[in-house]
Amino acid sequence: MNREIMFPLTEYQKNTLQFIIDYIDENKFPPTINEIKNIIGIKNPGLVHKILCALEKKQYIRKNKGMHRGIFLTKISIKMPNSKKMLKRK
User: Which of 56, 54, 21, 50 is nearest to 37 (CA)?
Assistant: First the structure.
């Protein structure tokens, strides 16, 4: 893929970030922790929080802790292609 990955991501981080990108592209607002947990297949919401903290530390997202849907993409992640758009190109 033609991604500009500034900091290496684990498989969970890649899947979570791609889900967030796809979700925002489709719905025009970010997913909740529970939506991420259910789609990624993680049983523990605490693990989702750890993944989101790692993505924030690596500057792929920005979190607003006071908001229910407080996940925002940064300039790095906005440059990443939407996986659904990638499938349509083929």
Answer: 50
